[in-house]
Amino acid sequence: MTIDSRSRRTARRMGALVGALALAAPLVGCSGDPEPRVADPTPSATPSTSAPATTAPPADETPEEFVRRWQAAADQAQTTGDVEYLLSISPTCRPCAEAMAAVREIYSDGGSIDVGPSSIRRVKILGTSERAASIEASVRVPKTLVYGSRGQSPQEMPAGEQRVRFSLVREQGRWLMASYARL
């Protein structure tokens, strides 16, 4: 395979996977735990831009706050190519690992991703327990440009909004992403 054909193949594959992460694509979930159920979930209608990713979660972080922090970490991983923090808060999430492998490949081929911060809107807690949470939200992602390698024309993905279900687990007192899927 030539470098040029590999770059084109990588750009197509990465564009699809990066777009999938940005909009929480319908990839196979990773959690074997059933989704928790709580009667009469209350939606949150306040749009909010993702906060910057941090390395230490607040001690009393709610599932909604975690999802916002996770999305900020996903944005940062795509923008910088540094995926380690996102993977550390998603250790069993197969969709996360697959999308971050794509991000790594883009950057290792000399490419980059140009995307602004996403925003999480209309959050609805579907259920929580001491060990798990399920959340639906609208994720708004700005236009994304994926450069497969240096000097290559970018692949453009338009801005969009998508309903997403996030499945979380709680381990050692902190929330972790178990899976996500587009609805």
Characterization of this structure:
- By secondary structure, the chain is an alpha+beta fold.
- The protein has one domain: Nuclear Transport Factor 2, Chain: A (Roll), CATH 3.10.450.
- The protein contains four helices and nine strands, in the order H-E-E-H-H-H-E-E-E-E-E-E-E.
- The chain has helices at about 5-20, 65-80, 85-90, 95-110, and strands at about 45, 50, 110-115, 120-130, 130-140, 145, 155, 160-170, 175-180.
- The chain starts with a helix and ends with a strand.
- The model is unreliable at about 25-50 (pLDDT under 50).
Round the mean pLDDT to the nearest integer and report it: 78
Shape: globular
Total discrete domains: 1
Can you identify the CATH class?
Answer: Alpha Beta
How many distinct helices?
Answer: 4
| CATH fold title | Nuclear Transport Factor 2, Chain: A
How large a portion of the residues is in β-strands, by DSSP E? 25-35%
CATH architecture: Roll
Q: Assign a percent range to the helix content.
A: 25-40%
Q: From N to C, what is the helix and strand string?
A: HEEHHHEEEEEEE
Summarize the structure.
This protein has helices spanning 3-22, 63-80, 84-88, 94-108; strands spanning 43-44, 48-49, 112-115, 119-128, 132-141, 144-147, 155-157, 160-171, 174-182. The protein has 183 residues and is an alpha+beta fold.
